[in-house]
Amino acid sequence: MEKVAHGVTQLTIQRFVNVYFVEPDTAGKWVLIDTGLPGSAKTIIAAADELFYPGSHPEAILLTHGHMDHAGSAQELAEHWKVPIIVHPAELPFLTGKAVYPPADPTVENGGSLAFVSRFFPPQSFQLTDYVQTLPEDSEPPFMPGWQWLHVPGHAPGQVAFFHPSDKTLLGADAFATANHESVPSLLLQKPQISVAGSPFNYDWEAVHASVVELANLEPQAIGCGHGPVIKGPEAAAGLTALARNFPTPKHGRYVSEPARIDADGVQYLPPVPQDKLPQQAAIVGAATVALIVTAAVLMNNKKKSGSKPAYTNVQHGFTRLTQTGREERGVKEIEYDEE
Q1: Given CA atoms 76, 77, 83, 88 in this order, what sign does their dihedral have?
Q2: What's residue 300's pLDDT?
Q3: Cβ partners under 8 Å of residue 138, min gap 6
Q4: Cα separation, 77 vs 11, whole angstroms
Q5: pLDDT value at residue 182
Q6: Which of these, 252, 248, 152, lies nearest to 208 by C-alpha position?
Q7: Strands 328-338 and 85-87, how do they pair?
Q8: b or e along 10-34 (b: 16 or more beta carbons within 10 Å of the residue's beta carbon)?
Q9: Is 136 exposed, middle or buried (0-12, 13-18, 19+ CB in 10 A)?
Q10: Among 11, 65, 191, 304, which residue carries the largest CB count within 10 Å?
Q11: What backbone torsions phi and psi does residue 170 show, to the nearest 5 degrees?
């Protein structure tokens, strides 16, 4: 656990995702912001017991948004503590089993290792109907006097950040990150660096940039995000301002030219799926690997044979030809010939 500011503590789970314990001015009262991945409940409960007192529970759970790494343990904790889960209204379709978030974009430019693993993420949706409530229309979140919530979409439709004006503490969710989110090693090492967060999951790049600009204008002095270490002092505002002024919008990706369109019922439009070259490249590499294995097996088998002249198999892999339809066809071809 690391202290972000007075009354705000960051807990990093599995060196990857952060949750926050926030104590407003009322003694003994606190809220939990975000819940980490599924299976994080015991770690969070143990941290709360250590930070406050055994058996302590929050007034509520507030979610910055409903992605799996932020809402994964929300239901288990709500049931354990008997408290509500509070979200922005735009997140409701995805947290009541009505809709799933826009699919990840593994083709986005500079997506890094996160883009690669995003190919294997399941569709994201939760059924929290019995626990979920919505934020009020005014800017002060429930049970958090002196704080403000700000709608910062682009990464998730109802993503919110939390800001404490009196000491300029910002909890930025995934509007941006405080580590290089495109590099899993950088996240695990917790190297401080204000950067774009979750590129493969950003469904509206223009909105992401606008959200960063809005938060940079707050000139925060202490920052905690969904991913990355705490950043305090002049570096906080300077780093966020630099990101806003030099925002690295990708040159290509599914949601770069046009966003997904989302309303109260969920996703209404998705841009066309761009070509993902990785499966094709993986198939070629796989064919080559199989060919090498076959070659080795044949040669080993021939060495064991005796008598007549052995036959050898020359395996030519990775050949390309055009079919009658004009499409390229790749495969493995074996040509058998005698030793002579």
Answers
A1: negative
A2: 53
A3: none
A4: 15
A5: 73
A6: 152
A7: unpaired
A8: bbbbeebbbbbbbbbeeeeebbbbb
A9: exposed
A10: 65
A11: -120, 130
CA distance 62 to 32: 6
CA 287 to chain CA centroid, Å, is 32
pLDDT on residue 21: 98
Structure-token pair, residue 272 = 């066309």
**204 contacts 257 by C-beta, under 8 angstroms:** no
| Segments of the chain scoring below 70 in pLDDT | 26, 184, 187, 277-340
> Residue 148 to residues 31, 93, 209, 218, 271: CA-CA distances in angstroms?
14, 24, 20, 12, 34
Cβ–Cβ < 8 Å for 110, 258: no
Which residue's entry shows tokens 């001015």? 25
338 residue type, one letter: D
What does the radius of gyration of the chain's CA atoms come to, in whole angstroms?
26
For the full predicted model, state whether its pTM sits above 0.85: no
Distance of alpha carbon 58 from the chain centroid: 26
DSSP state of 6: T
Q: Is 278 left (phi over 0), alpha (psi -120 to 50) or beta?
A: alpha
Q: d(Cα 163, Cα 140) in Å, to the nearest integer?
A: 10
Contact 57, 79 (CB under 8 A): no
| Helix, strand, coil percent values for the chain (each to nearest 5) | 30, 25, 50
The β-bridge relationship of strands 2-5 and 132-134 is unpaired
**pLDDT, tens digit (0-9, with 9 covering 90-100), for 237-272:** 999 999 999 999 999 999 999 999 999 999 999 999
Beta bridge partners of 312: 337
Tell me the per-residue pLDDT of 223-244, one tens digit each, with 9 for 90 and over. Answer: 999 999 999 999 999 999 999 9
